[in-house]
């Protein structure tokens, strides 16, 4: 990056106008529009007894889960929890 480009970038940062690409749409659920920082979200999750659990899934499975969440009007976390609960239930 050239010196003038860096100066423009610094000026934007100072003015609070610098936006990360894709940041505007990330995490929007369309609900109440409230912004919760990560620390507050972690407190809320802990109060509900939720534990972060990362897995790697096939993109087809993820698309199916997202479609199921959209059709049911639920949060993706709720849909995944329901699917896992039903899958682990004794037959």
Tell me the structural class. mainly alpha
* Unreliable segments of 5+ consecutive residues: none
Number of DSSP strands?
Answer: 0
Question: Which outline best applies?
Answer: elongated
What percentage of the residues does DSSP assign to strands (E)? under 5%
* Secondary structure tally, helices: 4
Helical fraction equals 40-55%
Mean pLDDT: 82
Computed over alpha carbons, the radius of gyration is 19 Å
For the report, how would you describe the main beta sheet? none
Distance between the termini: 61 Å
Order of helices and strands: HHHH
Relevant terms:
91 residues; mainly alpha
Task: Characterise the protein shown here.
The structure is a single chain. The protein has 91 residues and is mainly alpha-helical. The chain has a domain at 53-91. It is 55% helix and 0% strand. It is built from 4 helices and no strands. The N and C termini lie far apart (61 Å). The model has no long low-confidence stretch (mean pLDDT 82).
Please write out the topology.
Blueprint: H1 3-15, H2 38-47, H3 59-72, H4 76-88
Helix pairs in contact: 3-4
Quick recap of the structure?
The chain is mainly alpha-helical. It contains four helices and no strands.
